[in-house]
Design brief:
Elements (H helix, E strand, L loop, with lengths): L1 H51 L4 H24 L7 H6 L2 H33 L12 H4 L1 H22 L3 H9 L5
Helix pairs in contact: 1-2, 1-6, 1-7, 2-6, 4-6
Amino acid sequence: MGDYMEKSGKLKLAFYMVSIGDRLEALELFAGSISIIIFVGAIFVNVASRQFFTAVASADEISRFAYIWAVFLGTGVGIRHHSHYMIDVVRGLLRGRAAKAADVFTWAVTTAFVLILVIYGFQYARITMSRFSQPSGIRLIFSTICIPIGGIAMLYFLLEQAILVLAGTDRKAVQDKLRKGGGA
């Protein structure tokens, strides 16, 4: 009975994590899409203004900032879908315990890297809080705060992966059960 209760608690936590993760992913995809639209729009304005008028100095900068946001928001989604940080050729050759060990190693290294990214990302954002970009006068924190924000989302998805492994299930199975109206 104790094993069932322990597994049931882990499954319940997995359901909560996936449910929140789905919302976080949707938010990241929405914000990332807006970033890409701003990126493309700023490049269009930059090119058109150079061709027909005087170049708009801030358009280049805005496109760069939007691109940085899109990258850091997209990385969290990439981690959630296991599309980063694994060399598929090597992983494809591994079976059994070796494959599990490679997965654990990849998860641990990725988590350590993301923790460093969040810690130093906050420090970097704090430094840039009172600094302005030269051509446009935009506060640099608007471009640097995406580092820790994206890192926190990455950490959430890494924690979600760990909970799912401990619960003995996967994200798709939990999402299917949630769609059918079930729970843990």
